[in-house]
Design a protein that fits this description.
Layout: E1 3-8, E2 12-18, E3 25-30, H1 36-43, E4 51-56, H2 63-74, E5 79-80, E6 86-87, E7 90-91, H3 102-114, E8 119-124, E9 127-133, E10 139-146, H4 148-158, H5 182-209, E11 214-218, H6 222-225, E12 233-235, H7 239-253
Parallel strand pairs: 1-4, 4-5, 8-11, 11-12
Antiparallel strand pairs: 1-2, 2-3, 6-7, 8-9, 9-10
């Protein structure tokens, strides 16, 4: 059974064709606006699917069109996921659970289903979201800060002298290296600031829980920040999609 999973983020639409016993594959296109031509090319040779599931972190003007295209191509009505107050043993820490971004909710669903102990779950995308959860599934809340690319853009827009020519988006070769040019100084400074924020969140949660807290990283910039962080640490690039599968499998059983 093939399931089409779609994650519409702030800058990219990512999709995965999921099968329980076969290799998974997927693709990425721009999300604002959606690159329909490239998406159609990527989907051209896909096999029939049984379900289609969408997680969108913001109001996307083309979401209706996306659902219509999926229905026309596969005769499947897509399901859009939303955050909830409770999922099995996981309890949202938000005063208004529906206000928690569905991307954050999904990574928490997968994290609590697949990993043990108190966790600090970090999704390194356009925004870096940090969510903490106890060993028994109580979400403690979280932090949100601008991610690598957004911080670079804000710094360039807000200053006259800090200019960068096509700064490379690559992992820092040496942790906490001093920049020997403006591009390197900005890139390494942003990495160091984000790593310090993540470690601060972990220390705070360790103090509150009285236990060793594992960092669980996901998102496109996670490999860039991983060398700057201390163990215990796990990296799971498919965490959000795993959360989508968890919700689907649970709903199939009830």
């Amino acid at each position: 059974m093939y399931r089409l999973l779609i994650d519409i983020g702030n800058s990219r639409l990512k999709w995965v064709l999921w099968h329980p016993s076969r290799p998974r594959y997927g693709g990425v296109v721009a999300s604002k606006p959606i690159d329909w031509q490239l998406l159609d090319q990527q989907w051209q040779r896909l096999p029939p699917i049984e379900t289609a599931t969408i997680a969108a972190v913001a109001a996307v003007a083309q979401l209706t069109e996306l659902m219509e295209r999926i229905q026309a191509r596969w005769q499947v009505v897509p399901q859009q996921l939303h955050s909830a107050a409770v999922w099995r043993g996981l309890r949202s820490g938000y005063r208004e659970p529906s206000q928690l971004g569905v991307d954050r909710w999904l990574v928490l669903v997968a994290a609590t289903a697949e990993y043990s102990g108190p966790l600090c779950v970090v999704d390194c995308g356009s925004a870096v979201t940090i969510d903490v959860v106890t060993a028994d599934g109580q979400h403690g809340g979280g932090w949100i800060v601008a991610g690598v690319t957004l911080q670079r853009q804000l710094l360039q827009q807000g200053t006259d002298q800090v200019t960068m020519q096509n700064p490379p988006i690559v992992a820092t070769s040496q942790p906490f290296a001093w920049g020997d040019c403006t591009t390197a100084a900005v890139a390494n400074g942003i990495d160091a600031m984000l790593a310090a924020t993540i470690e601060c969140a972990r220390r705070q949660w360790q103090a509150e829980t009285g236990s060793v807290v594992t960092l669980l990283l996901t998102g496109g910039d996670a490999p860039r920040l991983q060398p700057l962080l201390e163990p215990p640490l796990q990296f799971d690039k498919e965490l959000l999609f795993k959360g989508m599968i968890q919700l689907q499998q649970f709903s199939d059983q009830v």
